[in-house]
Amino acid sequence: MEQVRLASSLVEDLRRADAAVGADLLCDVAMQAHTRLSDWAARASYSREVGDALQSALADLSIETAWLAIDADRRSEARPYLHEAITRARIADDPQVEVRALTHLSLLIRESQPGESLHCAEAALRISAGWATPRLTTLLHLRRAPAYAVLGDASGFSREMTKARRELDRGPHEDDQGFVHFVNAQELNGIEGLSYLALGRPERAVQSLRAITANPSPSHRRNQVYYTVRLSEATYQQGDVNAAARIALDVLPAVRQINSKRVSQHLAQVRGSLAAPLQATTTTRQFVDAYDQAVNV
Question: Are residues 6 and 99 in the same domain?
Fold first, then answer.
């Protein structure tokens, strides 16, 4: 059981490191640890009590590995880990781990399969009924809201955001699981902003995303940088290329310091948009030149 606890502590270490620096340097570490621990578990002998705890610990590691793959933009590698986590959670009869896996699966498939994303979040809401804390329920509504936005359903999006705000206002709970640590007002504004982008309303997206930069969350640096990059994207879509370039230029050093390919690729897309000849201004050229120099260093 002590070895199982060590496996669980590894997940917490990975989670904290990811929040600070992003997933690129952690993803392979997590995958290697998962392979070694899975092989060890297959060969070892243990009691039923230890076996159930081991299944839950390995499922949790699978979920964290999947998330790191998502942030490192290795999305095709993430889904098998989540399927494994759901299977292990069922074997251990651990609904909390199953809900975590479904929550991440909902995120993974939101853009490609928004309808299935809704079903995953709905299943997680159903399974967690009766024991979910307000922050967990907030997160599940924040999984459903942007899926509705991708589907073009503005009323569904608005309904889920209202539910998310109501749950978040209920505050933290002593039973909050570690993986909901990032669920705060910043994350709510971020999801709202991304959803408005999906709905083709960049002006509303700018309002939501700008609220994040005005009230940063120091303990979630990667998310802060990510949403700042998306603010630049929304500002560009709104038509203010100079403001978009200024935001992108300001956040460029932070993007270079963290290790999140997901964030880097969004900034690369902003660079591509601002480099178009029709967008050429002194400010946009300044950002494009700074970006190109930083990337080529």
Answer: yes
